[in-house]
Design brief:
Strands 7-6-5-4-2-3-1-8 form an eight-stranded mixed beta sheet. It has one domain: Cytidine Deaminase, domain 2 (3-Layer(aba) Sandwich). It is of the alpha/beta class and about 140 residues long. The chain is globular and about 35 Å long. The protein has three helices and eight strands, in the order βαββαβαββββ. The two termini are about 15 Å apart. It has helices at about 5-20, 60-70, 90-95; strands at about 1-5, 25-35, 35-45, 75-85, 105-110, 115-125, 130, 135. A hairpin with a 7-residue loop joins β5 and β6.
Length: about 140
C-alpha cells in the first residue's frame, strides 16, 4: 500500500496540468514500513522529450533528486508521469521501460481535465502489471 498526502497529490496534479499538452514526470521518495510505503517528497522533473506521448526525465534533475533523497534518509519509491490523452494505465512503452520491479509507477490521466485519475502500479520483470493500492491522506 502506498500513502500520499493530499498536498503531494495536488503538487503532482498542478505540475502535470502546467505541462500540458505534453506529458509531465517526476520521482517520489519516502520510507518503507513493512509493506506500507509513505511518500515524503515529490520531485517535479522536466520532460526533456517535450512530447504528449512519452517522457524522458532530465538526468541532472534526476541525480539531484536522488542525492536529496539520500541526504534526507529517503529511498526511491517510484516515479510518476501524466497521460494527457489516455487512461491511467501503463502503455506498452511504459511497461518496456519499467526496469525496477521494486518501485511504483504512478500515472495521472488528464483525459478528462476536470476528473483527473491517479493510479499506482507495480510492473514485474515479466512486464505483468498489478495495481498498488494508493491512499491519499488529507
Amino acid at each position: 500500500m502506498l500513502y500520499m498526502t493530499k498536498s503531494d497529490y495536488e503538487k503532482i496534479l498542478a505540475h502535470c496540468k502546467e505541462g500540458l499538452p505534453n506529458e509531465s514526470c517526476g520521482l517520489i521518495g519516502g520510507v518503507r514500513e513493512g509493506d506500507k510505503k509513505y511518500i515524503r517528497k515529490v520531485y517535479l522533473l522536466t520532460n526533456i522529450d517535450a512530447s504528449n506521448e512519452h517522457f524522458s526525465m532530465d538526468p541532472r534533475e534526476q541525480l539531484a533528486a536522488v542525492k536529496d533523497m539520500r541526504a534526507n534518509g529517503y529511498e526511491l519509491l517510484g516515479n510518476f508521469h501524466s497521460h494527457p490523452e489516455s487512461p491511467s494505465r501503463p502503455s506498452e512503452e511504459d511497461k518496456r521501460l519499467a526496469y525496477d520491479s521494486k518501485v511504483n509507477y504512478l500515472i495521472l490521466s488528464l483525459m478528462e481535465i476536470d476528473n483527473p485519475v491517479l493510479k499506482a502500479f507495480n510492473i514485474d520483470e515479466e512486464k505483468n502489471v498489478t495495481i498498488e493500492e494508493l491512499v491519499i491522506e488529507s
